[in-house]
Write the structure tokens for this entry.
Amino acid sequence: MKLVRSLIVAAGLTGLAGTAYADLDSQCPDYPGQTHAQILRGVEGRLKGDWDFAIKTTKRSAKRLKDSGQDASQAELFVTVLTCLRDEVKAGKHADAVAEARENPKPEAGTPAPPSKADFSNGSAQGGATEGSVAPAPAPAPEPAPAPAPAPALAEATAPAPAPQPAPAPATGPIIVSSQGVLPGTAESYGQAPAPAPAPAPAATQEAAAPPAPADGDYSGQACAYFTRPYEEVIDGLRHINRYNEGEWVCHSGTMYACLGGAWESKGPCDKYNRWETRLSSTLEATPK
């Protein structure tokens, strides 16, 4: 059974008792197989008085024993003994034993060596060897694996790749590429005149006449269309709708008209308005909308 040992638990579980040192006058519970003096000497000498470390580590050992289904009563008892001795040391008791342990931290002969802080890995102590025993020799370092031998060269040489075949010669004879240019070997280079370039097609334009003027010459009430151009024109395939936007003013035939509600409304003679010349229909309607 693998038992994770804390500070002095290893000594108690082995059943070895030390008798060379007089026990302390302590009121703490007895721990089987280990005197109070031995416990104090282990903490004050080996761990340099770090009681909290010893208690914390032993608590972790007890928890691991419980988690693995093992009996943790000995470890829990040792936590109680450690806590009691720590409180007595802090109260000033056992001062002579503390001084002697710090001056000569080596434990009694035959006492299992308590683990030091460096012996703890992840908060648990890994088994302790008897003080004064010879440490086992380290395992020999593994020998490096031999490098793999190079593969033997192929006995036969690889067959060379076939040489690339030359590209076939281009076909000869007159080949007409385009009627717009003359290239060597074409029909034009043999004395035939090139075909003339086709003339550009005329722009498609839909001609339409301007709308007729009203009989009385007053455009009031009519739609806000251009006065001098047709309402709809198609020029170069583009459709134009020649009408004014809401709120625009235009001077036509001496009368100023305003586009209000989508229809023309007469505003009187043009010359009573400043800069009326800039609103002439002949100027505004020079190009389609």
